[in-house]
Design a protein that fits this description.
Length: 242
């Protein structure tokens, strides 16, 4: 029955999702050109909130956990598992007081309504995965930006989406660069649970989607590799994968 409903409701949700992206693209442009970054950021937050709320079309139950644990007045490095394109709105909305920025592949910088514009104008960085030098320079720029402004940077160390929700091995390099260039940033593991069910067709119906801020990882004298492994382990534990 769920699969039948999925075939019926998935096109409806995807239509609403596409309409929101299309509507908010010119809104972002107007906000940016008239009032600047704060207004454009607010437009993206509202769009993200509506994308999350529209999941009611699929009967999804959405829960945010642990956001009260977030420290204030300091930069954050959000280390998240990656299940689908729908991981972004919960991060934008949940971390909105911390000005979240993203490390994204360069191909997403054009051609996608609202998303491409926000990546270009909202302070995120676009990296060429085939050009290590360019990628490192962009991540350094992001690390310095969050350090100077007490913003947050979100990184998906798996490098790609997990189609079945199983957490892949985290890569160290990107996080290592952020740690070096934002020495006062607090490391926040963030667990996305259930979004992989939205990436397929038909989309999951009646699923519980949980977005959890986990306990901050203390730097102490730990290496980037140790911190990366601790983040991976914490997320796997939250998802009952260890």
């Amino acid at each position: 029955m769920k699969k039948v409903l999925g075939y019926i409701l998935s096109p409806v949700y995807l239509l609403v999702f596409g309409l929101l992206l299309g509507i908010f693209n010119p809104i972002q442009v107007i906000c940016w050109n008239v009032w600047g970054y704060p207004a454009q950021k607010r437009a993206v937050e509202i769009m993200s909130y509506l994308i999350i709320k529209s999941l009611i079309i699929l009967g999804s139950r959405v829960k945010f956990k642990g956001f009260e644990k977030l420290p204030k007045d300091c930069p954050l490095i959000i280390v998240s598992n990656h299940q689908s394109q729908y991981d972004i709105p919960p991060i934008v909305w949940g971390f909105r007081k911390h000005y979240p920025k993203f490390i994204s592949k360069i191909q997403l910088g054009k051609g996608i309504p609202s998303i491409s514009y926000n990546l270009r104008k909202g302070g995120s960085v676009l990296i060429d995965r085939k050009n290590r030098s360019q990628a490192v320079k962009e991540i350094i720029k992001l690390g310095r930006q969050i350090e100077a402004n007490n913003y947050s940077a979100c990184i998906f160390p798996e490098g790609t989406r997990s189609k079945d929700g199983k957490v892949r091995t985290f890569k160290v390099s990107g996080l290592e660069t952020l740690l070096k260039t934002s020495p006062s940033a607090v490391i926040i593991p963030f667990a996305v649970n259930g979004n992989y069910l939205l990436q397929r067709f038909p989309m999951g119906v009646g699923e519980k989607l949980i977005y959890s801020v986990l306990a901050p990882i203390e730097r102490e004298n730990r290496t980037a590799k140790q911190i990366t492994e601790m983040c991976e382990s914490a997320i796997k534990k939250e998802l009952n994968q260890i």
